[in-house]
Design a protein that fits this description.
This protein is α/β, with parallel strands linked by helices. Helix 1 crosses helix 2. The longest helix has 19 residues.
């Protein structure tokens, strides 16, 4: 759908927590960006105009990819060496950006849903605070980071609207946008009208921030 709207698209996967815990997933994302940038000439791509988009866990990784460029701990060794893993725009859909949020203390310790986080980050927030901070896009923000658009279902949790992160981006002078899709839940790409709205918004955002001017 993004390709139909005039963008070149490459799809990549990453290791899930059942296969390898954090930071394996972000290492894989950065390896994919390095590979794409190193092979840009073969596909007639502009290596300095690369964006990323993802939903839910993918949205979190996209936001982390946008804010952790050059952070050695999260770079990994996959892909061509000596090639930058930075991106120039991101669309984070249904993404959690602050993994130190107070409500995660109880959720990651006592709930069945918290098992997802414990498997991904090696334990509950109370016991693994430095790891949760390392995995938090909010805690890596600086003035060199790219524009980020946040897309969220209006029926999803407030954390997907990234209010604290958007406020911090505004303080740093970084473009940050929010689009709440009316009536939509967390997995809003599953219904066509919500899907179309999300893709239209993402394509417009990427067109503004990635496409070269004539």
């Amino acid at each position: 759908a993004l390709a139909d709207r005039g963008l070149v698209v490459a799809n990549f996967s990453y290791r899930l927590s059942g296969e390898a815990p954090f930071p394996a997933a972000i290492h894989d994302c950065k390896a994919a960006v390095r590979w794409l940038r190193a092979h840009a000439g073969e596909y007639d791509l502009d290596p300095v105009r690369i964006g990323a988009i993802g939903l839910s866990a993918g949205g979190h990784l996209v936001a982390l990819l946008a804010t952790s460029g050059g952070l050695e701990t999260l770079e990994g060794t996959g892909g061509p060496s000596g090639v930058s893993s930075t991106i120039q725009a991101a669309v984070a859909m249904g993404a959690r950006t602050d993994l130190l949020a107070e409500e995660l203390l109880e959720r990651t310790s006592n709930t069945q849903q918290g098992e997802i986080w414990r498997r991904f980050l090696g334990g509950p927030l109370a016991e693994r605070r430095p790891t949760y901070q390392l995995a938090s896009p909010l805690h890596h923000l600086d003035r060199n980071d790219p524009p980020i658009a946040f897309l969220a279902g209006s029926r999803d949790g407030e954390h997907t609207r990234a209010a604290t992160m958007r406020a911090r981006m505004a303080e740093l002078g970084l473009p940050a946008h929010l689009r709440a899709i009316e009536g939509a839940p967390h997995a809003f790409l599953g219904r066509q009208d919500w899907f179309d709205e999300a893709v239209d918004h993402a394509a417009a955002f990427f067109t503004i921030h990635l496409k070269a001017t004539p």
